[in-house]
Amino acid sequence: MSLSNFHDVRFPMALAFGAVGGPERRTEIIELASGREVRNAVWAQARRRWDVGSAVERLDELNALLEFFEARMGRFHGFRFRDFADDRSCAPEQAPAPGDQAIGTGDGSPTVFQLVKHYGETERTILKPIEGTVRVAIDGVETSAFSSDTSTGLVTLDTAPPAGAAITAGFRFDCAARFDSDRIDASLEAFGAGRIISIPIVELVG
To answer: Which of 85, 107, 115, 170 is deepest in the core (most CB within 10 A)?
Structure first.
């Protein structure tokens, strides 16, 4: 799945490392007359939000941020954002392995599979894998006979896997994101006094 108005460039890594934020869900709660609740999950997937304002500590960082913001035309163009708390198919301090995540089961004909990451029973679509990091296995045996699309997260096997074969993958990934404001309020006087600028960023969910 491709995203419209998307620039395939990465938000400055040093500022992303200092981001504050994480996943957000939307739950509709209806309270009944009896006092009991009915809860509905409005979103199938979580959507992540971050604020990188606290990471801007020097004027050269502020200048780099403003330049990146202008080049994206505020909220108009999306970009790659590295969430260092969750940027791979495995635990944060481990290296991705080809058996990390189940991405499909062969039935003798399909060759294209979408990268996903599982959180218990919840599945997250991975749209922006990092080039050169994707590893794939068929029934536990790693293969190099595939290609991966870094703009969609699709993996294409050279030949269709046999029926019932488990297709798994390991990878690192960026989030597709955009600024969540069309303005940045930056005062050099306030900046020098240590005021934290709010710079919200939101994930684009495919």
So the answer is: 115
How many other CB atoms are found less than 10 A from the CB of residue 206? 15
* Other CB atoms within 10 A of residue 29 CB: 8
Identify residue 74 by its one-letter amino acid code.
Answer: G
Residue type, 152: T
What's the whole-number average pLDDT of the chain? 92
Q: Is the pLDDT of residue 5 over 70?
A: yes
Distances (CA, A) of 94 to 82, 148, 186: 16, 21, 38
pLDDT at res. 190:
58
Full DSSP string of 38-65: EEEE--SS-EEEEE-GGG--SHHHHHHH
Strand partners, 168: 102, 137
Q: What is the pLDDT of residue 53?
A: 87
Residues 6 or more apart whose CB falls under 8 angstroms from that of 94 comprise: 88
* Local structure of residue 66 (DSSP, 8 states): H
Rounded Cα distance, 137 and 66, in Å: 42
- How far, in Å, CA of 90 to CA of 96, rounded? 6
Query: Cβ contacts of residue 160 below 8 Å, gap of 6+?
Result: 106, 108, 109, 110, 111
Q: For residue 177, name the pLDDT band (cuts at 50, 70, 90).
A: very high
Residue 89 CB-density burial (10 A; 0-12 exposed, 13-18 middle, 19+ buried): buried
